Every structure is written in structure tokens, then in C-alpha cells.
Amino acid sequence: MGMNRVTMNRRLLPLALLLPLSSSLASTFGAFQITPKGNQKINLETGLTELPSGGTAVDSKNGLTLVARRMSFKSGETLSASGVTLTIKDGGALVADAVTFDQRTGMLKATGHLSFKNAQISGLSADSVQIYSLQSAVVASGNVKARTPALKASSIVVLGAGKQILVNGPYTLSSKNTSYANARQDSHLLLSGDVATARPPASLLKPFTPFLK
């Protein structure tokens, strides 16, 4: 009987490490305040918190609001979410199948079927979108396409709440009866408001350099 009790207790231990919490309890992940939609589970052994029914994560400091159908996070490390709608302080909105946020670097990466829009761009799709919350930068890369303006590019970098957009070649862009195209992989087109600059000088490219790979 003693051996059976020991065996049973060992089997129950992993279950005890999964602590279910009420949906009314909010959590903190870095600058995010996270409100679960349903119950949340905390693994006391690994420190992982799971929100099987998803929830909302708000970073008021950096102007990010993330709503997801499913979410998990580990303090000091990463947040992962699926079925995501993300809004940013400049009014931009991103819809993505999956998102990961690295608390240490402040970088959010979206993958899967995704689309992005803000005041300057609509109907934008890409293989991946990265949002650097600390630098207020958005990078879309891989098969980048947009409806307005009509755009195709290998990648784009958005800075200054959309006031400056660097289009990286090869690219084509059509807007207001004007067309631009360059087949070179090292080509750039800088959009600043209504002004487009082909072959921008190094001084204008400097703010974008950390995001060019």
C-alpha cells in the first residue's frame, strides 16, 4: 500500500504543477498587460502561462494592442500567439496567423497568412513582418505586395509612423500616374510623403541601415 501511495503521488505531481487561474486575473509580460479571454494555466515548473482561449495584450508605452485566439508567454523570454490582430500607435493594423514577441530585444515577428495596412499602405502582404517596438520600425520581407500604392518588392522598411518608407529591390511601384522599377537587388526607393527618391544617398539611407539585411 505504501508503494502504491508513493507511485500515485508521483503521478499527481505534474498535475499539481499546472495551476488553473480565473479569467478575471490579468498578467504582466514586460510592458504588456495581458487580459485572458477565458481561464489561464500556469506551469509552476517551467514558468509558462497558457491562455487556451486567447486574450488581449496591451503595451501602452509603445502603443501596441494584440488580440489573439490563443496565447502563451514566459516572463523575461517570449510571447507566442496565433490568430492575431495587432494595432500599433500610428494606426497601422496587422493580421497574422502567428506572432512571437521577444521581450529581450523588443522585436515582434509575424508569419503565416498575413496582411498589414496604415495611412500610407493598404492591402500589404509578405512572407513575414517584423515590428521593432523600441525603434518604432516595421519591416516586411519576402514577396512583398501592396494594393495601394501598387507595389512589389523584396522588402520594405517603414519608419516614423509611416512617414518614411524604404522600398528595396528588385521592385516595381505605380502611383499617381508615375511608375518606378529597378531589377537590381541592391536598389532602393525612398518614399517620404508624396516625394519619391530613386537611388537615395547614404545620408538618407542611414536611419534604415539597422533594418537592412
TrEMBL record:
<keyword id="KW-0732">Signal</keyword>
<feature type="signal peptide">
    <location>
        <begin position="1"/>
        <end position="26"/>
    </location>
</feature>
<protein>
    <recommendedName>
        <fullName>Organic solvent tolerance-like N-terminal domain-containing protein</fullName>
    </recommendedName>
</protein>
